[in-house]
Amino acid sequence: MFEDNDDRHYTVVRNDEEQYSLWPTDRALPPGWVSAGVTGTKSACLDHIRTVWTDMRPKSLREFR
Question: Which stretches are transmembrane (predicted)?
Answer without folding.
Answer: none
